[in-house]
Write a structure and sequence with these properties.
By secondary structure, the protein is mainly alpha-helical. It has 5 helices and 3 strands. The chain has one domain. It has a 3-stranded mixed sheet with strand order 1-2-3, covered by helices on one side.
């Protein structure tokens, strides 16, 4: 009985393997997948280097000035360890520290806003370049090695419109069901 069961399982596996191979030789087109290391592009490309230089020229002096003010406050803090220092000098130090902290926060906010804009420009450029290279070389998909995201997909494989239509349909059905439930509650 056991041998018969094992032979039946083996026969099923062989038949299934044959069906899989038959499906492999069907009309499915060959898929060409490319990969891009976005981290390398984002750090070593000319636009990335130009953005870095632009940030340094725009914010370098202000950053250096804030660092100098921080160092001066550290020295001032050392002098405040003396118990003979007046309360007024201690309060002046606290005010200066708070002022520097506020300047630093404002500076970091400005830098972050500029970095976001530069990153958006860089992403647009990289996506455009990826699209052009993939199209020219016949790739169906391009995947970011570092993030695993799809950077390009052949239009014939894009299901966005169909998925959007289905989402809209399901949402409308759900809304109708809610409306019907509310109408029953009112009655």
């Amino acid at each position: 009985m056991r041998k018969l069961l094992l032979m039946a399982v083996a026969a099923c596996l062989l038949l299934m393997g044959g069906q899989v191979r038959a499906a492999d030789t069907g009309t499915a087109p060959a898929v060409k997948i490319g990969v891009v290391d976005m981290q390398t592009v984002a750090t070593q490309s000319e636009p990335a280097q130009a953005a870095k230089a632009q940030m340094e020229s725009k914010f370098g002096k202000e950053r250096a000035n804030l660092e100098k003010q921080g160092e001066a406050l550290k020295k001032k803090a050392e002098s405040l360890k003396n118990p003979k220092i007046s309360e007024e000098k201690k309060l002046d130090f606290i005010r200066a520290k708070q002022e520097l902290d506020q300047k630093t926060r404002n500076f970091l906010r400005k830098v972050e806003q500029e970095e976001v804009k530069l990153r958006q420009d860089m992403v647009t450029l990289v996506f455009s370049a990826t699209y052009e290279v993939a199209r020219a070389k016949g790739f169906n998909f391009v995947v970011d090695v570092t993030a695993g995201g799809v950077l390009y997909a052949d239009q014939s494989m894009d299901l966005t419109k169909e998925v959007l239509a289905e989402v809209n349909k399901l949402y409308k059905e759900k809304t109708k069901d809610k409306d019907k439930g509310k109408e029953k509650e009112k009655k």
